[in-house]
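Quick one, tokens below. Sequence please?
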């Protein structure tokens, strides 16, 4: 049992060897008479990792990844596109290696519906896929904000064209202008991300648009993570930080944010709307946590609403953060559990996940944050391990360099 625990822990971190992984699933590898089929919806950090590790750990299961886009743009590092330190091509990934190296069938299409009783999904192109187990990783969708037109007021919280639009607006902003961004109430994708963006933009503006102002409208009562680091950076940059500022509406033409504290006019307005689970989760009756997130059993990420369907990543409602690194970890726990279930076994009883990230604070410095979550049998939930929590005291150039090592490892573990 001690060896099994260690093997499972290594797998959760993506460190298990192929040989060790194969030994973990003797039932499905040696005894399967028909090949089970797992369908994965969504090709971000959660979905791509799940698809990869299902095949990496077992050659006896067929895996189909359904993702409408041929290219995935990483939200991680996307704020560095805004200050021209990265371009989109440097944070873009395709699914060619997943298909050629791991034998995953990649289908570029939208999912229009799930027929849970028949265990099939309907694709917009007209075809139907049957599954033995279904893993859903659709990320987030945005909730409505009155008057918001994201083609004029970008969120740039899903990287790609939105990132380019915000970059272009910042480049065209006059010196002495005002950049206003809004942060939704938690939970939202990437807890430090909005504060990171405010720092990166403020740092860039003071060099390239002298005399400009940055205003952060935060629906939360305080900075949600790394409060000292971001608070000190805001003070250094002269960022006006306004907590409890609930966004009530937007004038997208005039670039005005209507909030509980009044109106704020901007030259560049960046509104990050409140989030919910991806639309397929809501449409399929899987959003049973506050009608926004999917309730799951964290041992397997199987839905508490519908059997044989697993939800991972930003759409899950376990209370774990919504971010790329921990989505990668959840995907491995889920893949491991699915293979065990398909072989007639039970999920590992003590899964562990890790949430970690580096945040650029300037063009040369970054901070870091890490935390481990472990399954608590008494409550049936994933709990933060208090002694695991850590954060940098101050942003440093060494952290900035290590940030790229971290992202390279995460990108490779997901897509390579």
């Amino acid at each position: 049992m001690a060896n099994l625990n260690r093997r499972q822990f290594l797998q959760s971190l993506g460190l298990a060897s192929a040989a060790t992984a194969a030994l973990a699933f003797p039932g499905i590898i040696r005894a399967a008479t028909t090949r089970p089929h797992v369908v994965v919806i969504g090709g971000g950090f959660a979905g791509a990792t799940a698809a990869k590790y299902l095949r990496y750990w077992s050659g006896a299961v067929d895996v189909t990844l359904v993702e409408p886009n041929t290219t995935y743009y990483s939200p991680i590092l996307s704020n560095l596109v805004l200050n021209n330190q990265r371009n989109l091509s440097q944070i873009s990934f395709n699914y060619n290696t997943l298909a050629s190296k791991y034998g995953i069938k990649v289908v570029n299409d939208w999912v229009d519906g799930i027929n849970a009783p028949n265990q099939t999904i309907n694709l917009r192109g007209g075809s139907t896929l049957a599954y033995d187990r279904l893993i859903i990783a659709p990320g987030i969708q945005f909730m409505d904000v009155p008057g918001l037109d994201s083609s004029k007021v970008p969120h740039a919280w899903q990287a790609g064209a939105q990132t380019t639009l915000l970059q272009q607006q910042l480049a065209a902003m006059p010196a002495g202008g005002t950049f206003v961004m809004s942060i939704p109430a938690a939970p939202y994708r990437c807890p430090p991300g909005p504060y990171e963006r405010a720092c990166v933009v403020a740092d860039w503006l003071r060099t390239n648009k002298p005399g400009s102002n940055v205003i952060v409208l935060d629906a939360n009562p305080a900075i949600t993570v790394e409060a000292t680091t971001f608070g000190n950076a805001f003070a250094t940059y002269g960022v006006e930080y306004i907590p409890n500022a609930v966004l009530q509406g937007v004038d997208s033409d005039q670039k005005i944010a209507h909030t509980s504290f009044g109106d704020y006019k901007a030259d560049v307005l960046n509104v990050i709307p409140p989030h919910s689970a991806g639309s397929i989760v809501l449409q399929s009756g899987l959003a049973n946590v506050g009608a926004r997130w999917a309730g799951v059993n964290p041992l397997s990420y199987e839905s508490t609403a519908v059997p044989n369907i697993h939800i991972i990543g930003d759409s899950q409602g376990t209370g774990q953060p919504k971010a790329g690194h921990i989505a990668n970890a959840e995907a491995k726990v889920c893949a491991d559990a699915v293979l065990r279930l398909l072989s007639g076994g039970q999920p590992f009883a003590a899964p562990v996940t890790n949430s970690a990230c580096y945040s650029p604070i300037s063009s040369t410095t970054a901070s870091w944050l890490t935390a481990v979550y472990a399954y608590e049998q008494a409550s049936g939930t994933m709990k933060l391990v208090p002694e695991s929590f850590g954060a940098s005291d101050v942003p440093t150039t060494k952290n900035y360099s290590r940030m790229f090592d971290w992202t390279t490892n995460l990108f490779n573990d997901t897509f390579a």
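The two ends are 31 Å apart (CA to CA). The longest strand covers residues 366-376.
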